[in-house]
Write a structure and sequence with these properties.
This protein is α/β, with parallel strands linked by helices and about 260 residues long. The protein has a single domain (about 10-245), classed as Rossmann fold, CATH 3.40.50. The chain has 8 helices and 7 strands. A 7-stranded parallel beta sheet has the order 3-2-1-4-5-6-7, with helices on both faces. The radius of gyration is 17 Å and the shape is globular. It binds nicotinamide-adenine-dinucleotide and ligand IMJ. The site of ligand IMJ has 16 residues, from helix 6. This is Enoyl-[acyl-carrier-protein] reductase [NADH]. It comes from Candidatus Segetimicrobium genomatis. Keywords: Fatty acid biosynthesis, Fatty acid metabolism, Lipid biosynthesis, Lipid metabolism, NAD, Oxidoreductase.
């Protein structure tokens, strides 16, 4: 029972590989004494996620595509069947069509808008609702966002709009869940070279700019994001809900 999350069980959604922010969070949670349950999106990811989970004692792995209600319902049932209550839920999921992450936002098609908002924002609402019966009083939910929600970042386009919906959802969900003693917060992370970022044109240049202009003059380390997630899911953050916490070495405070 030692560590900031000693004796707690956390569900981590969004590990794809060892570069995923969700994996850094899982490792930090494990270090702090939490038992982990992972979900993976599709068969292609199952092997990788099982291999990573295998390195953390006592962890389990379940399938869940967040765009399918049946998957979310089955996930909640499996957790209930195993007699697991959840003390933490980590939502680290986003997706938009490649073609919508470039060019002009005005060209976003109806279907691309719907897909980005569904997977990247509504999934938090759906996951929280389905898992509510297994969330223990005192539980904490954490999601990942990006400053492109409130400021125009080149090429972020429909994902920026999805993150605005996600952050607003955090506030409305915090109001809904607060009376049950459940908190929900977002971490706004600086750019990190994961599979979701690597694909972006000019990403290395973005990292260079962060290093030059952020107050702490460095790039965001996934371990820094993970430690903030530990804090938000620990009793140390018992008075914090509905908040967006920036873990970006201060980049967002700067003007030009
Ligand atoms: P990642 O590619 O490792 O993680 C994204 C995850 O989303 C993957 O595990 C993928 O399987 C999952 N996913 C997508 N569609 C899904 C679906 N339908 N059902 C279930 N899972 C689905 O990349 P990451 O950078 O670790 O991204 C995690 C979160 O962090 C995202 O919300 C992202 O927007 C956010 N974020 C990333 C950065 C960055 O620079 N990398 C910065 C700020 C915020
Ligand atoms: C993504 C696109 C454009 C600019 C971007 C990003 N910047 C950063 C990201 C500056 C930091 C990464 N990020 C914060 C994301 O939320 C990424 C989401 C994402 C990435 C992809 C790439 C591959 C794909 N679909 C995606 N959907 C969402 O096909």
């Amino acid at each position: 029972m030692t560590g900031l999350l000693g004796g707690k069980t956390a569900l981590v959604m969004g590990v794809a590989n060892r570069w995923s922010i969700a994996w850094a969070i899982a490792q930090a949670f494990s270090r702090e004494g939490a038992r982990l349950v992972f979900t993976f999106q599709g068969e292609r990811q199952e092997e990788d996620v099982r291999e990573l989970a295998g390195t953390l004692a006592g962890s389990s792995v379940l399938p869940c595509d967040v765009s399918r209600d049946a998957d979310l319902a089955r996930l909640a049932e499996s957790i209930q069947a195993e007699g697991l209550g959840l003390d933490a839920l980590v939502h680290s999921i986003a997706f938009a069509n490649r073609e919508d992450l470039g060019g002009a936002y005005v060209d976003t098609a109806r279907a691309g808008f719907a897909l980005a908002l569904e997977v990247s924002a509504f999934s938090l609402v759906a996951a929280t609702r389905h898992l509510l019966p297994v969330l223990r009083p005192g539980a904490a939910v954490v999601t990942l966002t990006y400053v492109g929600s409130s400021r125009v970042m080149p090429n972020y386009n429909v994902m920026g709009v999805a993150k605005a919906a996600l952050e607003s959802s955090v506030r409305y969900l915090a109001s809904d869940l607060g009376p049950r003693g459940i908190r929900i917060n977002a971490i706004s992370a600086g750019p990190i070279k994961t599979a979701s970022a690597r694909a972006i044109q000019g990403f290395s240049r973005i990292l260079d700019v962060m290093k030059e202009r952020s107050p702490l003059r460095r790039n965001t380390d996934p371990a820094e994001v993970a430690d903030a997630a530990v804090f938000l899911c620990s009793p140390l953050a018992r008075g914090i809900t509905g908040e967006v916490l920036f873990v970006d070495n201060g980049f967002h405070i700067m003007g030009i």
